[in-house]
Amino acid sequence: MNDLVSIIIPYYQKLNWIDQTLKSIYDQTYKNYEILIVYDDTSKDELKNLKSKIKDKKIKLYINKKNLGAGMSRNLASKKAKGKYLAFIDADDMWKKNKIEYQLAFMKKKKIKISFTAYTIIDKNNSIIGKRASKPIVHYKDLVNSCDIGLSTVIIERDLFRKYFFSKNKTKEDYSLWLRISKKNNIYGLSKSLTRWRKLNNSLSSNTFQKFLDAYDIYKNQEKFGYFKSFYSIFVLSFNFLLKYINSKTYSYK
Fold it and tell me: In the chain, how many domains are there?
């Protein structure tokens, strides 16, 4: 029997996109999964509308009493998860229909505990506006200079994840996790693009100042870098992000 995969979705004001996200899960060729949605909002109307969209018995809805942020919401769901594997997807992203099946086969063949994939970048109208490649293997020294792992592409063994968990940062909570995991584990990438990541200008992840603050906290307080090395690492991280942004625009899309 196929291993159970627990799919974790933190939810905050994504009512326009959640239907597409869920459909991309329902359409998966791999069928042994559960879906854990963590509602991280205080709006009763939003919650009512979200509940109206939840019709699959595989979905379990958890409601935060106060806003905890995406990372803490994923941590909460991971403690409820029953699957051997955890798969993360945000409430406005989408997967290709063979994503779980293809990625799990890759992981089992390689006997690895965590992997990610390449992905395409889409706008609010589902038009492709960019592409991000993936490296075959990502080490800690690579991640310090450039975060090349898309959160919604990751599948990880539950037991490995529970040794680390997401940080409390408002942004880059996933980056902090990959850094800590990569100190003792290689993180393997698939060159095949299996995820569509939606770029929205009003998202928290687009807040440049907050990203700067969180990057500094990760380098200085979590990774224990000195002041100079922390600021230098932020500069390198930002520079490499800009390069990736430029390179992602060099592709031709139809």
Answer: 1
